[in-house]
Amino acid sequence: MTKSATTAASNLKFEPGHDMSFGEGVSHFRHGFAESGLFTDEKLAELIDSYPREYYMITTMSGAGEQPEWRNGDFNGASGKFVLDAIREGHLWLCLRRLDLVAPEIDRLVNDAFAEIEARNPALKTSRHRSSLLISSPEARVLYHSDIPMVALWHVRGRKRVWLYDADNPKHLPDETLEGVVLRETEEEIHFDPAWDAEAAAIDLEPGWALSWPQNAPHRVDNLDSLNVSITTDYYTPAAQRKYGVYYANGLMRRRLGWQPRSTATDGIGALAKCAAAVAMKKLGVHRQAERDMMQSFVLDLSQPGAIDELPPSEWRPILQT
Ligand SMILES: [Fe+2]
Question: Which of 57, 214, 49, 241 lies closest to 135 in space, CA to CA?
Fold first, then answer.
């Protein structure tokens, strides 16, 4: 029997020892997604043309050494080809969310790769996969932040440097800050001191390489040259789900009840109770008013690829995201 085309496209090859660290530690490995032919300029332009408004975010960010800033905008009716040119020429970062709904053929590549990783490591169980396609400018940056779920970054085109910091170092990520991230109070950017770079791992991602790291590990990304194309996949393991529940419940106890949470343990009966409480509180919408609103503050300038038109604050609008 021959291997199916999609299995061949995932084509995973791990750095020594890294296949067993996927889902827990740092895992750096090769994939063959580009061989699918789904990431050419033409295919990407077609995909952008088809994207529903509620599933994309186009963002611009401050340069190195400036006050950290991360703002959302709108295509302003531009074609997919124009959007791609704007990203190539500008200082932009495009996130196409919900590939499962809009680009199932890309989502399938990722799901096949996860199936292959779990087949290598039967103790690993992953769930709730959500993949997005990221297309970003040659010198775009993603500022220091922490993501709620586990993340795998599948790099396809261009080069980027990922700076990874220690999730368990309270200097890099205090518990109260992580609670704010989990409760979605912050715009993801969190306090950062460039001196911490000395303690970070800097990993250059070449096309065809993927990286996954410990849950909530703060990170930032510098594109190194040319247009960058990657897929980012959020996912959970049972341990990641428990950690989420513990920080969600601790965050609410601290904010609503004035308690100082003493334990961040993610095993044992206390952690399970906190997870159950977190699910119940989330369903009841206990903390919904404090969740951030995503505002649109610029549109693409249709006369010049890469330029943006700033909107006055009176014209800022919340961006519908579902
Ligand atoms: Fe991230």
Answer: 57
